[in-house]
Design a protein that fits this description.
This protein has about 180 residues and is of the alpha+beta class. It is built from 4 helices and 8 strands, in the order ααβββαββαβββ. The chain has helices at about 5-20, 25-85, 110-120, 135-145, and strands at about 90-95, 95-100, 105-110, 125-130, 130-135, 155, 160-165, 175-180. Helix 1 crosses helix 2.
Length: about 180
């Protein structure tokens, strides 16, 4: 294999580096600068190559994870349909469990002006120095007690949520993966 001028300079620089010396003059210094430029171009080329490979790997990763996530979602959907058809709240199986739980209702003040007309006299405001904000717990208790929804308040019904756990490594040991939808 024939050595180029740059290769010869690099080889000489490596030998000189081992001896911790390079004798320089202006011509030799200029040659070394040129060699540094070539080395830096090779470094940039390596970085470009690695960046392209990383992009390819990231694309592959996202593509494969997308396929697996769609498959997992489809399987979880089937489990949810099954447990809802049984009218059971919890089903425990050797590899995991499934649950259907109701979430709490949520109280939201949707129109503050209307709400403030009735809130003060009913004790539905909490005093925070220099401001007032709705006491959602007090409002929720009033709604449960009387069934009346105050002016400016909306009641968002609780949802019926499905979740599952997958036991890895046998029941009672290993990882537990929980998911809800």
């Amino acid at each position: 294999m024939e050595l180029t001028f740059i290769d010869e300079l690099l080889a000489e620089a490596e030998v000189a580096e081992a001896e911790h010396r390079i004798e320089l003059d202006k011509l030799r210094a200029d040659q070394l600068l040129q060699t540094i430029g070539v080395v830096e171009e090779k470094m940039e080329e390596v970085n470009r190559l690695v960046e392209n490979e990383i992009k390819i790997i990231e694309f592959f990763r996202s593509s494969e994870l997308g396929k697996l996530e769609r498959k997992r979602s489809w399987l979880a959907w089937n489990l949810e349909q099954y447990i809802r058809s049984t009218n059971e709240k919890t089903i425990r199986l050797p590899h995991g469990s499934m649950k259907v739980r109701n979430t709490r209702e949520k109280t939201v003040v949707s129109d503050m002006e209307k709400f403030l007309l009735v809130a003060g006299k009913n004790g539905w405001l909490r005093h925070i120095p220099e401001s007032y904000e709705p006491d959602l717990q007090a409002i929720q208790q009033h709604i449960k007690r009387t069934g009346e929804i105050p002016l400016g308040v909306s009641l968002i019904a609780g949802e019926n949520k499905f979740s599952y756990e997958v036991w890895r490594g046998g029941e009672g040991s290993g990882e537990i993966e929980t998911s809800a939808s």
